[in-house]
Amino acid sequence: MAKGSKRGCRNFVIACLLLLIAIAAGGAWLWQRYAGFSDRPIAGLQAGDSVIVASGDSFPGVLRKLRAAGVDDGEDLQWRALARHLDVAGSLKVGEYALAPGITPRQLLLNMRNGKVISYRFTIIEGWNLRQLRAALNAATPLRHETAALDDAALMKQLGHPGQHPEGRFLPETYVYSRGDSDVDVLKRAYAAMDEALEEAWQSRARDLPLQSAEQALILASIIEKETGVASERPQIAGVFARRLKQGIRLQTDPTVIYGIGSAYDGNIRRRDLQTDTPYNTYTRAGLPPTPIAMPGVDALRAAVNPAPGDALFFVALGDGSRSHVFSATLAEHNAAVARYLQQMRRPPLPEEKPLQ
Q: How, if at all, do strands 314-317 and 174-177 pair?
């Protein structure tokens, strides 16, 4: 082979090597830039920022929403390449996603692929009545409101339980929901949770219980819930009511009277209220009221079906600010406890003690 040919071949090889080195260097630079983009926290995000992926959104559409939300980091080509790499483009999940400070493009797209949406919480408080529950639901955001214009009968029909009284039917606990969920979704879950909790409690009931059905257990549990100032006293209060039911003594419990008064209740029970007959006045009527009067929690359900043993037939608040009660077996003992309570209520507050010198 001629020297010129050898020299030309050598130059060609060198040129090819230089080209490969340049390509490798360029690829390394592009990869470094891509990796830096995908794992670098997105700049300028504020707590509470979010983006919504709607049904039918394509990835370019979502990218436009990100830009509109203030996400300026990265070129569109980089976002698309990252989406292809993570298999996000065809796997977007509908929902609201947090644009939290510190989140990276990779984390954000993985959240969209895996459906890690923003969660909200709605809590039903033990002892709430239906009116309070519905008011809280109507104020909850971003929950969709589908029941605000419905009366109680229409509400239960919407939930799939036409003709059933709604009071006491929704279990107090915290329910997690996402943007797009409605109050109907939350209520259906709370209804199912109460059904399950009530059935579990009823199956574990004591043998000599003076209740004929799980429905009666729910009613009694709602009264126990409203009478309880200290959680540990629920079984004792249940025991008082169970013994009164067995002996045919009227329950004479103020919360049922208040429920019967309804929205007209002004915070005070007067003698005329105790003497005015309503289906819920347990001073004028024997036995349980016709429906629950509040939403009882699991502990109240368990107390209703497993009341504490004893001989107490009465209880009254201790009156010392502790919300505890005094339990009595006889009317004489109870009257003495009531007198002490009234005296405690009339006593002027004690002056503040001076600190020791």
A: unpaired
- pTM (predicted TM-score): 0.81
Beta bridge partners of 121: 176
- Phi first, then psi: what are they for 277, rounded to 5°? -75, 130
The structural domains of the chain, ordered by start, are: 39-118 (3.30.1490.480), 120-198 (no CATH), 209-346 (no CATH)
Each residue's pLDDT tens digit, 89-143? 889 999 999 999 999 999 999 999 999 999 999 999 999 999 999 999 999 999 9
Rounded to an integer, what distance in angstroms lies between the CA atom of residue 74 and that of residue 62? 14
52 forms bridges with which residues in the sheet? 96
Read off the pLDDT of residues 42-91 as tens digits, 9 standing for 90 and up: 998 999 899 999 999 999 999 999 999 999 999 999 999 999 999 998 89
Q: Which residue is listed with tokens 């890690």?
A: 116
Integer angstrom CA distances of residue 94 from 26, 60, 114? 38, 15, 10
Cβ neighbours around 327 below 10 Å, total: 21
CA distance 312 to 315: 8
**Tokens 């909850």, residue located:** 140
* Backbone φ, ψ for residue 324 (5° rounding): -80, 170
